[in-house]
Design goal:
The complex is a heterodimer. Chain A contains 12 helices and no strands. Chain A is an all-alpha fold. The C terminus of chain A is likely disordered. The N and C termini of chain B lie far apart (about 45 Å). The C terminus of chain B is likely disordered.
Chain lengths: ~260, ~150
């Protein structure tokens, strides 16, 4: 088991092993998403208060969950990279940031579209909405900071510290609806007693959450693999992978000195 | 200590330090983070007078009185312990109905009337099909709307 993880931490093996996973991960994503969408949009009954409008939650809620999950993932991989100086950990953290920012944006937009007919307003500055907006800025700040520093090790360290510091926002977002009076309603599914949602409406939600989760890992691996190729573009294994023809234009004298660095 | 252990300590110190700082900041801002006041808080004089704030509560059954010639409407908000009468003269959101959670933005008049400039509907965390809701209402097992009950959460 540990040997497998150690292998994954090596760029060359990571690239080789994960390459075959991508089509399978796409298949699993669709396996969750198609029944999730079908059950959610056609089979699930309309809500007793909100009618059909509640169906936007099948995108809104999983997107919001993912926005929190990906940030935690980013902070943890960032911390691992910081403590163990692991190159792959930073690649993972950096590759997940744009995906997390997209999910956060999606959660905010679908929430606004839901809010207009139900609450009567697109946006309010309550604790839940504001803390989620701060999360979007944290993602954007992370991406900006990471790309503003040229030296990859310094960039990784600075961005990881930002990710770890920003992670205090995660429990604030989750508990905001319980700690303060908010316009946003309280938790429906993630609470200690029984979910406050009828099973016929809950199942599509869980399927969609599963779909979004697997989708994240699929896209993460694809992004990490291309990021890896870019960072290791002068390493011998990448040049061998694509035949030396692609690498020769870079100039052969450089490759010898770079090998020592990687 | 090896360099790695030192880095571990640093990372944990950052996490603990930032958490404490955030906790203190949030505790200090507690009042400003409240999105709305409950009728009980208004009754006990915690709500500000003279400038606009929000009040949240359930629209009391049978309290909605519409002015036949205009959009003007008057209703009572309650949190189970206290009540406040709201006056509003604009279009109400779709979810506005008796028994529904509502947040009104406006000013408290000297006579205790809350004059709202905006009314927002607050839906709760319960989702169910209409038939289930009917059945639950008939058997009296409808989940209680605890949004506005008790102290500010």
């Amino acid at each position: 088991m540990w040997a497998f993880f150690h292998k994954l931490a090596s760029p060359k093996h990571f690239y080789r092993i994960t390459g075959s996973w991508i089509p399978w991960l796409w298949a699993v994503t669709l396996l969750f998403m198609i029944p999730g969408l079908y059950l959610g949009l056609w089979v699930a009954p309309p809500d007793y208060q909100q009618g059909d409008s509640f169906r936007i939650m099948y995108v809104h809620v999983p997107a919001a969950w993912m926005s929190l999950f990906i940030y935690v993932f980013m902070a943890v991989t960032g911390g691992i990279g910081l403590i163990w100086n692991m190159k792959m950990a930073d690649i993972m953290a950096a590759s997940s940031a744009p995906v997390g920012a997209s999910f956060t944006f999606l959660a905010l937009v679908t929430g606004a579209i839901w809010g207009k007919p139900m609450w009567g307003t697109w946006w309010v500055w309550d604790a839940r909405l504001t803390s989620e907006l701060i999360l979007l800025f944290l993602y954007l700040g992370y991406i900006a900071l990471h790309s503003a520093i040229d030296d990859p090790r310094t960039a990784a360290r600075a961005a990881a510290i930002l990710a770890i510091v920003g992670s205090v926002n995660i429990p604030i977002i989750h508990y905001s609806v319980e700690w303060w009076n908010t316009l946003h309603q309280g938790p429906t599914v993630t609470r200690l007693d029984k979910p406050a949602i009828h099973p016929s409406m809950l199942w599509p939600l869980l399927l969609m959450a599963g779909a979004f989760q697997v989708y994240f890992f699929t896209v993460l691996l694809m992004r990490a693999r291309s990021e890896l190729l870019w960072r290791e573009r002068r390493a011998r294994w990448v040049r061998e992978l694509f035949g030396n023809s692609a690498g020769t234009t870079v100039s052969n004298t450089q490759s010898n000195s770079d090998k020592a660095v990687t | 200590m090896t360099p790695r252990q030192r880095r571990m300590v640093w990372v944990s110190l950052i996490v603990v330090g930032v958490s404490i700082a955030t906790f203190l900041a949030l505790a200090a801002f507690q009042k400003n983070l409240l999105y709305f006041y409950t009728p009980s808080q208004i009754a006990s004089g915690e709500a500000p007078t003279g400038y606009a704030f929000r009040v949240g509560g359930l629209v009391e059954n049978g309290s909605v009185k519409r002015d036949p010639g205009s959009l003007a409407v008057r209703f009572t908000l309650t949190d189970g312990a206290a009540r406040v009468t709201v006056f509003y003269d604009d279009i109400l959101p779709d979810l506005f109905r008796e028994g529904q959670g509502i947040i009104a933005i406006g000013q408290l008049q000297p006579d205790g009337l809350f004059k709202a400039s905006q009314v927002l509907a607050k839906h709760d965390e319960n989702y169910m099909p209409p038939e289930v809701a009917d059945a639950l209402k008939k058997s009296g097992k409808m989940p209680p709307v605890d949004e506005f009950k008790g102290e500010a959460r």
